[in-house]
Queue: 2 jobs
Job 1
Amino acid sequence: MTSRLSYYYEMGRHVHPWRAAPRVWNYLKYRGLARKAKTSLHRYAPQIAHVMATRRCNLDCGYCNAGNFVSSKGTDWREGEATLGKIKRIFASPLFANCLLVDFGWGEPLLVDDFESIVSYLAQRGSIVNISTNGLLLAKRIAGLKRAGISRINVSLYDANRQVIERDISQINQIFPVHMSVVLLRSGVERDQDEIIRTARFVRESGCRSLRFWIYRPMGVDPRPEEIIDDAVAAFIEFRRRMEEALPGFCLWPTPVRTKGFKKLCPQLWQRISCDVLGNVGICCGTDMMLQGPNSNLFDSEPDSVYNHPTLVTMREQLLEPGADPPNICKTCNLLGDPGW
């Protein structure tokens, strides 16, 4: 079974048939109905919820948007931290109620005291629950997350957390096998291929289910557009060949940013909805910017008005019009040509 098929199988086997029935039906409607620039929740709602459980992080990586929060002074982090009550309020909204997949990221979710209770609540509703974590606190909480019904855990590997991951990951995988991910920089695939391959061998030998590579996106407090990997970077093609030769079928691969001849396939503006626990709604997974102005907050506006915020409608129009340039946000995003699931 290929890595991508294994990924979908792993997600699907966590779906409780009866509890998830409304969410599966919502997904089938999305797959069967055409995308429109201005849409309605009566047709289908988003299938993926991306929730910022906290803006805090116990790392401060320059290319992560959490750094924008860490570097700001006087921020009351408690107000923006998830509790079970706040999560219940989010998923009472029709925009979130039928999301089949719930993904926690941006800040470090394991800094949230209520997190096991949050996972349990969402799993019992019939959602697939995934978290992205830096893993620094994972060894202490992995057993509780398993009991709560977590579906999938992705550990993001950086230089800053590598020592702790190397110490803990085998023990973690004995309780609940996780996935690992690495952000690929252009300089890395051009100069450090051997080191990345050694890292991939360690990930597999420690018992992880897979290794996913992400294309670097210039976000955060230190954006570096020169590190983007596009389809003109020959070293990426060679790197992928070497990696598949060394560890066949173990890695999940991104599509490089297309420089020409691409199709605008990205479904994120229809399929995904994101917010923080204060109800502020994000634009998409390719940017840390939030919607602005009227109808940009989940708790202050009608759901259809948020789903059809002018920023989202305009971006959808650009994605649907064959001859139009993609939105500026999309031009450096490798998901522009990815049809999603």
Note: Residues 67-74 have pLDDT under 50 and may be disordered.
Job 2
Amino acid sequence: MDIQDKKGSLLLGLAAMLAVVVIVALVGVFALQEEEVLITGEAEATEYRVSGKVPGRIEMFLAEEGDQVKKGDTLVIIYSPEVEAKMAQAQAARAMAEAVNVKAKNGARHEQIVGAYELWQKAKAGEEIYRKSYERVQRLYERGVVSAQKKDEVEAQYNASVATVKAAKSQYDMAVKGAREEDKAAAEAQVAKVDGVIQEVELARAERYLTSPVDGEVAERFPKTGELVGQGSPVMAIVDLNDAWFTFAVREDMLQDIKVGSQMQVRIPALGNELYTVEVTYIKAMGTYATWRSTKQNGQYDVRTFDVKARPVRPIPDLRPGMTAIVIREKIVTSPKIVIQVNKQ
């Protein structure tokens, strides 16, 4: 190879090396340029779980996923044979208690009253006979015609007839008056007790119909028609789209200008490029087991992540849970402090 060729190769090598240096320098320049730092979050909304107090099987769904419902709308009907069986038992007990109560109030039947009256009259007739016999024997005894023993026997019979009349009169009065006040009160209390059981079963019956607790949208249905659900098991989820907010996971070195009450602009890609104003309502450190990040390899310090919640200042049409929200911050180089544009009230 002659000298001219060697010079050409050397120049080509130098040119290649120069090109590499230029490329590395350009990469370094672009790498050191300020970049757009984004904080992204997610839209959330209050969700209500619809569940029942009565176990049973899903008889019918009256709303589908995505349906708009109003507070109080019936969403699910549960079939519970146990509740119907308890109602039948309670109604039978009610009929029995009512019969006992009526009997206590009405007293004895007419035939019983007539029978007691006849026994009383019979006892009175016997008393009259024994009274006359006693009076005759008493006079004869006073004359010395009969013995004292005979007189005592007749007197005992007369006294017994008087007691019999009193007993018969008492039975007649009891038949006329009916049961005692205590028995009447006990019968009425039994009726009231059974009424309470019926009311309890009626409430259980009403729990078969599950209604919406709020105006919202059916987000999810858990069981299928015919499946068995237990007491308190969630059957349906209702989301209140009017009660929405955003949740952001923010490193603590980005919190200097984010305070409770601060307002910031967010962009929601699903809704276009329009900016929406949100207000920070909640800041709390997240668990270290999931958010601790070491930065000692570049000479900085360990940082934690904070949960930041912000609510829209005005309702955002078509906002749905799960939509991404982006907060655009100023571009910087390496400073850990990233300034966010906010309007503080």
Note: Residues 47-80+207-236 form a domain with the OB fold (Dihydrolipoamide Acetyltransferase, E2P) fold (CATH 2.40.50.100).
